Amino acid sequence: MEFISTYQESAQSSAVIRESGRKTLEGIAASKVLNGPAVEGERIADHAEAAFARMDVILSEAGLTRNAVTAVHVFLHDVLRDVDGFNAVWRKYFSDHSPCRYCVGATLQSGMLVEMNFYAEFPEV
Description:
Layout: E1 2-6, E2 15-19, E3 22-29, H1 44-61, E4 69-76, H2 79-93, E5 100-105, E6 114-121
Helix pairs in contact: 1-2
């Protein structure tokens, strides 16, 4: 595995990694929008929209679109309460292309309802 670069402007944990001849963009998309306030409240849709907006910024900086996303790991603070609301936002963002994903419950930082780890493939050049 070869570490290629980071996306410090977008997310602390975002990185480009090359493994087995394949490049991937890996990053945490948390519920805080770039350079904006943290999302507050208990509506999972608001938190999910903010997380997807952050993912879009990271992808854009890497010259990619949502169609490059191959897998998403989703962590919900209250999976039983929020999975239906999250799925509604998921279907909106991945209406043309649905990457594989798993969605599990997790203890997240205070105030966070969702956290995502996504993987996107770069085209071969």
